[in-house]
């Protein structure tokens, strides 16, 4: 299998222009380094600075397995267009909220079935999200197979009502079948994203749906960290990616200044 080319050495930030690109960024493992507990994450100050600058220059949306309200909390004071819970909810650039309708009964039954297993095994964690439950085993990696078995049993009776999405030390049990790829396509049909070249960076299995959704286009897809991927480029980790975002923001700012000098005005996104 051929090696995925490096984002840093293959694509200089100068190759991007604010008038033609749309940025889509995953959250955990891409913007926020992985932490022991879902609540313990923090977006490094330089990443926040780069995001704030880029959001002024180009259409930018977050695509995450987290609920949008969590993203807003971790990215405060920024409130960006975002897709949460792997595509189940979406906030457009104009603030409109879109939710995929879901049946909560199956999810509730799974919650009840998983709770005793989690109580019996300290270190396991059930994260409750709108339309999804995530079973985390980062603190008990030796229980990975037992968790998978428990989730298989708990979801078996619910057929297509639920989808199990494996991630980094987590099994996300989600109502319905929406994906980040669906959310990305929806953004690309709306202002201010429509007609632009998509750039999407993500680190996890769930990001592969968006990488695949973009395969047929001229999109730039970037896998953050190691692992099999359908992405076209790779970046070593969130630290390196933050540096790259910062240099992209600087490039965009200097293009904007040039534009102001030439045309005497700012685009004022
Ligand atoms: O799509 P993402 O933005 O990458 O979100 C995927 C899941 O991220 C969170 O879990 C992951 O990050 C935690 C904090 O670093 C880590 O402890 C956990 O092991 C990871 O799986 C989040 O808690 C999930 O809800 C998201 O689905």
TrEMBL record:
CDD domains: HAD_TPP. Its EC number is 3.1.3.12. Keywords: Hydrolase, Magnesium, Metal-binding. Pathway: Glycan biosynthesis; trehalose biosynthesis. It comes from the Bacteria. GO terms for molecular function: trehalose-phosphatase activity. Its cofactor is Mg(2+). It is an enzyme of class 3 (hydrolase). It holds the Pfam family Trehalose_PPase. The keyword Transmembrane helix does not apply. Removes the phosphate from trehalose 6-phosphate to produce free trehalose. This is Trehalose 6-phosphate phosphatase. It comes from Chelativorans composti.
């Amino acid at each position: 299998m051929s090696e995925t080319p490096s984002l840093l050495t293959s694509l200089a930030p100068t190759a991007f222009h604010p008038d033609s690109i749309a940025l889509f960024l995953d959250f955990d493992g891409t913007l926020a380094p992985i932490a022991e507990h879902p609540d313990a994450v923090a977006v490094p100050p330089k990443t926040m600075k780069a995001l704030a600058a880029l959001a002024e220059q180009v259409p930018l949306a977050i695509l995450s397995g987290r609920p949008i309200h969590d993203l807003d909390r971790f990215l405060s004071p920024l409130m960006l267009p975002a897709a949460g819970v792997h595509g189940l909810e979406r906030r457009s650039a104009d603030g409109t909220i879109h939710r995929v309708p879901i049946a909560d009964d199956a999810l509730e039954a799974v919650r009840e079935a998983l709770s005793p297993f989690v109580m019996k095994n300290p270190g396991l964690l059930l994260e409750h999200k709108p339309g999804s439950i995530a079973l985390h085993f980062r603190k008990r990696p030796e229980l990975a197979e037992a968790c998978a078995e428990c989730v298989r049993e708990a979801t078996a009776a619910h057929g297509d009502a639920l989808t199990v999405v494996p991630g980094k030390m987590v099994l996300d049990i989600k109502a319905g079948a929406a994906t980040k790829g669906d959310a990305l396509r929806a953004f690309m049909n709306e202002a201010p994203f429509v007609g632009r070249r998509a750039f999407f960076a993500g680190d996890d299995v769930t990001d592969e749906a968006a990488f695949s959704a973009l395969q047929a286009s001229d999109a730039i897809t970037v896998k953050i960290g190691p692992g099999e991927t359908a992405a076209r480029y790779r970046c070593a980790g969130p630290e390196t990616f933050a540096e790259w975002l910062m240099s992209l923001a600087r490039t965009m700012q200097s293009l904007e200044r040039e534009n102001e000098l030439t045309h005497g005005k700012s685009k004022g996104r």
